[in-house]
Amino acid sequence: MPAATPTTIPFPGADLRAALSASQAHMQKDTPKTKTMNPAANNNTVLERLSRSEVYKDYERAFNEATGLPLQLSPIEDWHLAHCGRRHESPFCALLAKQNKACAACLQTQDELTKTAQGEARTVTCFAGFNETAVPLRAGEQLIGFLRTGEVLPHEPSAPGFARVVRQLEKLGIRIDATKLREAYMQSKVVLPKRYEAVLKLLQIFAQHLSMVANQILVQSDNAEAPNITRAREYINAHYAEDLSLAAVAQAAHMSTFYFCKQFKKATGLSFTEYLSRVRVEKAKEQLLNPHMRVSEVAYEVGFQSLTHFNRVFKKLNGESPTTYRTHLPFASAA
Fold it and tell me: Which of 92, 123, 173, 263 has the least C-beta neighbours within 10 A?
């Protein structure tokens, strides 16, 4: 799919104070005051697991080396600059990030990108002329975050271009060492539109792959997790096909039901029911490789008590029904 024409975000005016206030308010929420884990917190836990996975770290390393661009796996709502302090961060953007008003302008661009990229990959151009891109990442049908890159110019930096940026900054009352700012601007990374389009295609392909393996990553044990949680995972993996109860798993983990629910969700980002469903769906995908098994047989074999429920859960986690999924398997094309 060709990349869409970048959207230019107008220079922040009246909205700047709102953007700055919103960023400060969200930063104050970094330390949660409630013990209830909301959907956004669950998604963030999932993203943390994905960011620690070998498949993501390998791709991030390869992407950085091949393109010289930053890459960030970020949540849906994020009031921190995506590339701040990361490898290949633009020196020009790093200088702006040190100024509160300039930082708020960048956050406004980032927020606009988040709003427009929830359906498909989008690129926006900030007031300084730099491109920023977000590619939506899904786990099944659910949007859980974005792959972000950018902080690049679509053309060679020039003296007139730098002068325009300085005028914009002066309107905000921002004063930065002109010599350092000009040097950073003139050394900014340039990726011409056609090449940038190819880079975004790579990101879209990776987002699709990461979505496919997200469920597998989520049901894998984490080396840093508590032994009780590991025992719970092992017990679920051994008994997923049975009529498995929360109480039975909690007992196997040597924990009370209430405490187990709390700790298990904290460690995995999933409730017991959600986790069990994901394990069963992964097992079902293995069973669907057998062309001689009917979908209904697979459903009951992996522990679902209803074909309708199996179809609904499978589609939610994979974005397609078991029957459709099966049409993509190798034996289907050979039949």
Answer: 173
